[in-house]
Design goal:
This protein has 164 residues and is of the alpha+beta class. Helix content is 31%, strand content 23%. It is globular and about 40 Å long.
Length: 164
């Protein structure tokens, strides 16, 4: 089974964060689009991708946009990962058995979904894709009526693709 594609209905979920609070996709979508980024702390591509997710969160996070990291590890390891990679966006925990990851068809991490307020997946990206991140950032800018910014900085050497 492959990750759910763009156009598919995003399965509903409520997960507990590393802070102990529960977060619901349905509630977040009432405010605007949601990026759900599935990851494992031991995954090198996830470690590479985390700062770019933080950059997306810094640029567009607020009342109209939600970004969650959805960890396939326990809360303690996830908190440490967030500290190490200077992540401020909320991290939610997909408990052992990975029921939410399975509903989304996760076979590789990172897998990133942009979910539109209507509950449909607008973008689906497996591994790290420079083009996909640029598309997600542009879509979030449009959805939040925020002027788009250059997502990657001049002079940064970023691979086009990095498999998960």
């Amino acid at each position: 089974m492959a990750a759910l594609p763009a156009g598919a209905k995003a399965p509903a979920f409520t997960l507990q964060g590393t802070d102990g609070k529960k977060s619901s996709l349905a509630e977040a979508l009432k405010k605007g689009p949601v990026v759900a980024a599935f990851f494992k702390v031991s995954c090198p591509t996830c470690q590479f991708t985390a700062p770019f997710l933080e950059r997306l969160h810094d640029a567009y996070g607020g009342e109209q946009f939600t970004l969650w990291g959805i960890s396939q590890d326990d809360a303690a390891d996830t908190r440490e990962f967030c500290r190490e990679f200077e992540i401020d966006f909320p991290a939610l925990i997909d408990e052992k058995g990975y029921s939410i990851s399975n509903q989304y068809g996760i076979t590789n991490v990172p897998t990133v979904f942009l979910i539109a307020p209507d509950g449909k997946i607008q973008e689906s990206s497996v591994g790290f894709s420079k083009k996909d991140f640029e598309q997600i950032a542009a879509a979030v800018a449009r959805a939040t009526s925020t002027p788009p910014t250059a997502f990657f900085k001049p002079g940064e050497v970023i691979p086009d693709l990095k498999p998960g």
